[in-house]
Write a structure and sequence with these properties.
- The complex is a heterodimer of chains A (about 170) and B (about 600).
- Chain A is mainly α and about 170 residues long.
- Helix content of chain A is about 60%, strand content about 5%.
- Chain A has 4 helices and 2 strands, in the order ββαααα.
- Chain A has a two-stranded antiparallel ribbon with strand order 1-2.
- Chain A starts with 5 loop residues before the first strand and ends in an 18-residue tail after the last helix.
- In chain A, about 0% of the residues are buried.
- With about 600 residues, chain B is α+β, with helices and mostly antiparallel strands.
- In chain B, about 40% of the residues lie in helices and about 25% in strands.
- In chain B, strands 2, 3, 4, 5, 8, 16 and 17 form a 7-stranded mixed β-sheet that branches. In chain B, strands 10-9-21-20-19 form a 5-stranded antiparallel β-sheet, with helices on both faces.
- The relative contact order of chain B is 0.10.
- Classes of the chains: A mainly alpha (about 170), B alpha+beta (about 600).
- At the A-B interface, α3 of A face α1, α2, β3 and α11 of B.
Chain lengths: ~170, ~600
């Protein structure tokens, strides 16, 4: 888009809708004002007409800033200009902290799961060792060891002597 | 571009008007009019664009409303089902402990190594690495893995944790570990018929495992959680834990040492007497505790597959499921009934001629002997069938059967073993009952009892006439603490005096000359032997007997009551086959429990 456009606000002020202003636009207006000196640069405003800026008084300003200035009170504009980056920064920091916390909790959670699995493994090993202990204490195993490995044998009833002991 | 074009055409129009009117005002008005037209067109298009966006927004909001509100529950369920995971937590099955807390049956988890053949890859490498770790031959592993299958194949079960750790470290593809609970029996097959066994689903199938299945099994728990696409649990997701309720441990009345002694003596007696089987029951009369319950034949609890359909008879708890005619051991009960009723006393005389005619049927003594004038004590010492037939006539059927019922015959004992039968006892109320039944029932024929019933009945003499319910479980150790089960006195059956009288009469029986070799030095034992012919379809087989013996020791301060039974012994008679077993058993009992001698 190479041209420029202008719409007229109800108050008769000019809103610049173009993103850029061609360098010859101002010159054309100024030239027209110079070639027709009988007509004042600023005429009585009429509905539907664009007021013509005075020669040398036109200072292009960003359209967004014009809108801000027109819609917000002065105090609000100042606050908006000052607090917006701060608020964005604060939100970013909070989000970062939350992310870090969440990540930490997730890591801890996986650590807990790993440790629980490890604990289950140790419990399983403990159970098996207890069983081995119980088997080694069983009468079956003791008798088997005594008779097979240690060469013991069960006494005959005749080889037993019961003694009366004083109470 | 359309906007520029409009401005240009507007300017051309304005210039045309200026040429016609040649007036500045007219030109200005025309330009203003043109700008109004252009502004209206612009507003129209803006409105259209807004309407378009608004329409899109409405559609999106409607769709959002549909998904979130109208069908929200449905999609919530779909989402939950997608990521929800319920991880079951099996409850530990309670252990069976002997009376001193030694484990008889415990549940231990072991790893099983299994393979998903399709993921194994290099079978040769996997087999070569696994074989020495699992101690499974290479050929065996190869046959399991080759050809590969989609289904998991168990390479080895019951792997100790140390071996499982080594398998983990190998990190072989397609090889996995899975922990599964195994019921283990540290004492081997000790008291197998009492303990029973569990199935693959860990439900009790026989013995105490079945009758106390609810207490032992506990209640499984679960973790209701969320998982990600890889199946991993989401740490920050919902996690609702329902903890399992562990099964209770049963503290039995069985003493592993006496159980082992009883099984050893029984097995030896069965071998020595060429019997087909037998049993030994040892009880504590005061509490009803059963200290040992040995059966032969029995089954192997430590086998991989315990149940063998060809030997289904061995899995029963025969001390409550099998009834038998007790023979002369029941004479003590009939004699106590008559003494308690005052019909006779130990010194009451009768003339034993060797036979007696009861309602046209001749009843003879077991040895066909005529014992002549006999006291009631002599009747028991000689185990006289004639004397007991005479006694039953004196007592009468109503009182005899009433006492039998009070001694617990014909009713379950409530020992809480599965399949308990009540025994068989005909009374005058039964159409099949005859007068001859009264006589034969008095000496233990024509009537059937279970071993536990007889043990309970004889315990009355050692218990000042009180009938105490026998039991195999004396407590439960559960998550809520220890629950001690108190002994239960059922009723007073006979007077304490009658009970002591019977004890003294039974001591006389055990100390008769024929049983002199089987006395235990320093102790008085009250005993009564019995020999019962086995019933057939056409009468009794006198060559196939059940030789048995009941005993109470020490007689002065009874602590133990014993029943020994041998089925089909070669030497037929209880006094010959069971009395030697009693001697050895009594010596073990008084030694193990440190019972001081009484004489």
């Amino acid at each position: 888009m190479t041209g420029r456009s202008a719409i007229t606000s109800p108050a008769g002020r000019v809103r610049s809708a173009g993103s850029s202003r061609p360098p010859d636009a101002g010159q054309r207006r100024r030239g027209r004002a110079e070639t027709a000196p009988s007509r004042p640069a600023t005429t009585k405003s009429r509905p539907g007409l664009s007021p013509r800026p005075a020669v040398g008084s036109i200072r292009p300003r960003p359209a967004a800033l014009e809108w801000q200035e027109s819609s917000l009170p002065l105090l609000g504009r100042l606050r908006a200009a000052g607090w917006l980056p701060t608020a964005l920064l604060a939100v970013s920091v909070v989000a970062l902290v939350y992310l870090l916390e969440t990540s930490g909790v997730a890591t801890t959670g996986y650590d807990i799961q790993r440790l629980q699995a490890e604990r289950a493994d140790w419990q399983l090993r403990n159970e098996q060792l207890r069983l081995e202990l119980a088997k080694r204490r069983s009468l079956t195993w003791v008798e088997s060891e005594a008779t097979s490995r240690l060469g013991m044998q069960r006494p005959d009833s005749g080889s037993l002597t019961y003694l009366r002991t004083p109470r | 571009m359309a906007y520029v074009h409009t401005l240009r055409s507007t300017s051309r129009t304005a210039r045309g008007l200026a040429a016609v009117t040649s007036s500045d005002d007219q030109v200005m008005e025309a330009a203003a009019r043109a700008e109004v037209v252009a502004t209206r067109g612009l507003q129209t298009r803006l409105l259209l664009i807004c309407a378009l966006f608004l329409g899109c927004a409405v559609v999106l909001v409607w769709r959002l409303f549909t998904l979130q509100v109208r069908e929200g529950v449905h999609y919530q369920q779909l989402g939950d089902a997608e990521r929800r995971a319920e991880i079951p937590i099996a409850a530990r099955r309670g252990a069976l402990l002997d009376t001193n807390g030694n484990p008889l049956a415990v549940t231990v988890r072991y790893d099983s190594v299994y393979a998903l053949g399709s993921l194994v890859g290099d079978v040769d490498r996997v087999v070569a690495q696994l074989s020495p770790v699992l101690d499974v031959p290479v050929a065996r592993l190869r046959s399991l893995l080759d050809p590969p299958t989609e289904r998991p194949v168990v390479l080895r079960s019951r792997v100790p944790s140390a071996v499982a750790e080594r398998v983990k470290q190998l990190e072989l593809p397609g090889i996995y570990l899975d922990a599964e609970p195994i019921r283990q029996y540290p004492e081997g097959s000790l008291a197998a018929q009492v303990l029973g066994f569990v199935g693959h689903d860990f439900n009790g199938l026989s013995g105490l495992e079945l009758s106390f299945d609810h207490e032992l099994a506990g209640t499984p728990g679960a973790i209701d959680t969320e998982r990600d696409t890889s199946g991993q649990e989401i740490s920050l997701g919902r996690r609702l834990l329902t903890p399992p309720r562990e099964g209770s441990d049963l503290v039995l009345t069985i003493d592993r040492y006496m159980q082992r002694v009883a099984e050893r003596l029984l097995n030896q007696a069965v071998l020595d007497n060429h019997a087909s089987g037998g049993l030994i029951l040892i009880g504590e009369p005061r509490t009803g505790n059963i200290l040992a319950a040995a059966n032969s034949p029995t089954y192997n609890l430590t086998a991989d597959e315990i149940f063998d359909p060809r030997q289904a008879d061995r899995y029963k708890s025969k001390i409550v499921t099998d009834q038998y005619e007790p023979g002369s051991t029941l004479k003590t009960i009939a004699m106590a009934s008559a003494i308690d009723q005052g019909v006779v006393s130990p010194g009451t005389m009768m003339n034993d001629t060797g036979s007696i005619n009861v309602a046209g049927t001749i009843i003879r003594n077991w040895n066909y002997a005529a014992n002549g004038p006999s006291t009631m004590t002599d009747v028991l010492v000689h185990s006289s069938n004639v004397g007991m037939s005479w006694l039953s006539g004196q007592l009468g059927p109503d009182r005899l059967y009433d006492y039998y019922a009070r001694f617990g015959l014909g009713q379950p004992t409530g020992v809480r073993l599965p399949g308990e039968v009540t025994g068989t006892m005909r009374t005058p109320r039964d159409a099949a009952w005859t007068r001859i039944d009264l006589a034969t029932n008095a000496f233990g024929q024509g009537i059937a009892v279970t071993p536990v019933q007889l043990l309970q009945a004889v315990s009355v003499f050692a218990n000042d006439g009180q009938l105490v319910q026998p039991r195999l479980v004396r407590g439960l150790r559960g998550p809520d603490g220890v629950e001690e089960l108190s002994p239960r006195v059922v009723r007073q059956v006979v007077s304490p005096k009658t009970a002591r009288t019977l004890l003294q009469m039974m001591v006389t029986v055990h100390e008769q000359p024929a049983l002199q070799p089987y006395r235990v030095a320093g102790y008085h034992i009250a005993a009564k032997t019995g020999t019962a012919d086995t019933p057939t379809n056409v009468g009794y087989n006198t060559d196939l007997t059940v030789g048995s013996l009941v005993a109470i020791l020490p007689a002065e301060q009874p602590r133990f009551v014993v029943l020994i039974r041998l089925d089909g012994p070669e030497k037929l008679y209880g006094g010959i086959v069971a009395a030697p077993v009693l001697k050895e058993l009594a010596q073990e009992l008084v030694t193990y429990y440190r019972v001081p001698p009484t004489n």
